[in-house]
Design a protein that fits this description.
Elements lengths: L1 E2 L2 E2 L3 H12 L2 H9 L5 H16 L5 H55 L6 H29 L5 H5 L1 H16 L11 H6 L2 H10 L7 H7 L3 H12 L5 H13 L8 H6 L4 H16 L2 H14 L7 H26 L1 H24 L7 H17 L5 H8 L6 H30 L5 H17 L8 H7 L8 H4 L1 H24 L1
Antiparallel strand pairs: 1-2
Helix pairs in contact: 1-5, 1-7, 1-9, 2-5, 2-7, 4-5, 4-9, 4-20, 5-19, 5-20, 7-16, 10-11, 10-12, 12-24, 14-19, 14-20, 14-21, 15-16, 15-18, 16-17, 16-18, 17-18, 17-21
GO biological process, one term: D-glucose import
InterPro entries: GLUT (IPR045263), MFS_dom (IPR020846), MFS_sugar_transport-like (IPR005828), MFS_trans_sf (IPR036259), Sugar/inositol_transpt (IPR003663), Sugar_transporter_CS (IPR005829)
Subcellular location: Membrane
């Protein structure tokens, strides 16, 4: 695995990234899109169940309320999962949390797929809540796990497995939801049964892979276990350099246990890291991509496309998203996080503006709807070029080990609340502003780009301590504090050499 001093990606690292994401972020992406295709069948099931129970058709207002709850409770579950993740991460570790989380996925699959047979729409609603809980835990534990097991020069590429599998999950939900596959009245239950398959695959593979070596050494004080984990992930026997780096970080944190959310909010030394995380994660949702996903069919329908071809146009958006995420993963270590984020947000602002123009003048020419469709694809590709995955990577990179669980809890809370706000408010914004509704997202994209250009340092190929040092000036922390880690590293190395010399002299 070592050639000319360069570390190649090992099979162990790839398996951990892929199967970790398969049972986590893939399910999150799948559940973003899977309810779109069977929506009419589920609503009909709600109506039939209501008739069986009460002997009358469900009223329009109650039907809308039940469907809204079914869709939006996914975000509520995600928020609950985010809040509970830090407890699980501390007790079970990164890998252990991912494994236990699969229990929620299997339970949700059973509830969602058996709800019609049991004539209980409550089972569907509870199932959506539980799979949201699963997604909230997954989007906290997985980026943390991937960031801690990856060598720093490929940390971004490995971290992008999270975004790639989200996109692949969205695309899979679109494919399986086609009328020719499972998008039929007699088959829609199987769309939810599929949730159990990625979870079971992860349960089979992940136990054979190591826990995060940083977690083992810093939080469990298991140096032997950390050494074995590093050896498997890096594919080499001599991991003394990696161990020493983590060991010094552990020594620097001996007097500091894992901090709580309130302690993190009060800590001046990480204030701008926290603000940057909040801004980036808010822009991740408020940039408008979710509005595109939720209302793509309506946008294309309003643009004049025929009803029977809408599923295939929607399918192409998932394919473009997946391809863009893969390309981003291949170039992130060459171009860096900051340029990809700023480019993505700026490009989204441009294409949202063009989409507004084309939607406003769509009746002027027969080919204008195709320009609207092209802008939708461009918005999706722009999002996946950076904003779609890098916010999760940055949350893991901007904080040291003690702060990381609390930081992910805050980032996840912002993520899910923003997600809920977009789904709730965009229909009213669209109704008020009509074709100009997407200009709201242009504002968020531009403001986010300006902030990132001014504040965010580049984090590629840097240690966690180097990244924290990059914020020392803006946090008004003396630079000397940032060098303590490097000084400790040199002092410890010299002490080790002296100890070896003393032992050798005694032996002689």
């Amino acid at each position: 695995c070592w050639t000319d001093g360069q570390l190649r990606v090992t099979a162990c690292l790839l398996n951990a990234a892929f199967f970790g994401a398969l049972g986590s972020s893939f399910l999150y992406g799948y559940n973003l899109s899977v309810v779109n295709a069977p929506a009419l069948f589920i609503k009909d099931f709600y109506n039939r169940t209501w008739i069986d129970r009460y002997g009358e058709h469900i009223e329009a207002g109650e039907a809308t309320f039940l469907w809204s709850i079914t869709v939006s409770i996914f975000a509520i579950g995600g928020l609950l999962g985010t809040w509970s993740a830090s407890i699980l991460l501390g007790v079970l570790g990164r890998k252990g949390t991912l494994l236990v989380n699969n229990v929620f996925a299997v339970i949700a699959a059973l509830l969602l797929s058996l709800g019609e047979i049991a004539k209980s729409f409550e089972m569907l609603i509870i199932g959506r809540l539980i799979i949201g809980l699963d997604s909230g835990i997954a989007l906290t534990a997985l980026p943390m796990y991937l960031g801690e097991i990856s060598p720093r020069h490929i940390r971004g590429s490995i971290g992008q497995f999270n975004a790639i599998l989200i996109c692949l999950g969205v695309f899979s939900g679109q494919v399986l939801g086609l009328p020719q596959v499972l998008g039929q009245e007699s088959r829609w239950n199987f769309l939810f049964s599929f949730l159990a398959l990625p979870a079971l695959l992860q349960l089979c593979v992940l136990p054979c892979l190591p826990e995060s070596p940083r977690y083992l050494l810093i939080e469990r004080r298991d140096e032997a276990g950390a050494e074995r984990a590093f050896q498997r992930f890096l594919g080499k026997k001599d991991v003394s350099q990696e161990l020493e780096e983590v060991r010094q970080e552990a020594q620097a944190q001996d007097s500091q246990n894992t901090v709580t959310v309130l302690e993190l909010l009060r800590t001046r030394a990480v204030r701008w890291q926290l603000i940057t995380t909040i801004v980036t994660m808010a822009c991740y949702q408020l940039c408008g991509l979710n509005a595109i996903w939720y209302y793509t069919s309506g946008i294309l329908r309003a643009a004049g496309f025929a009803e029977d071809i809408l599923p295939y146009f929607t399918l192409s958006t998932g394919a473009v998203e997946t391809l863009a995420a893969i390309v981003s993963g291949l170039v992130i270590e060459r171009l860096g996080r900051k340029p990809l984020l700023i480019f993505g947000f700026c490009a989204m602002a441009v294409f949202f503006s063009l989409l507004t123009v084309f939607l406003h003048f769509q009746d002027s020419a027969s080919w204008f709807p195709y320009l609207s469709y092209a802008c939708i694809l461009a918005v999706i590709a722009s999002f996946c070029s950076g904003p779609g995955g890098i916010p999760f990577i940055l949350t893991g990179e901007l904080f040291e080990q003690a702060y990381r669980p609390a930081a992910f809890m805050i980032a996840g809370t912002v993520n899910w609340l923003s997600n809920f706000a977009v789904g709730l408010l965009f229909p009213f914004i669209q109704e008020t502003l009509e074709s100009f509704a997407f200009l709201v997202f242009v504002v968020f994209c531009i403001l986010g780009s300006i902030y990132l250009f001014i504040v965010l340092p580049e984090t590629k190929n840097k240690t966690f301590m180097d990244i924290c040092q990059s914020f020392a000036k803006i946090n008004k922390i003396p630079p000397s504090q940032g060098h303590e880690f490097e000084m400790n590293l040199c002092i410890t190395a010299n002490n080790n050499i002296k100890d070896q010399n003393i032992k050798m002299e005694s032996f002689l």
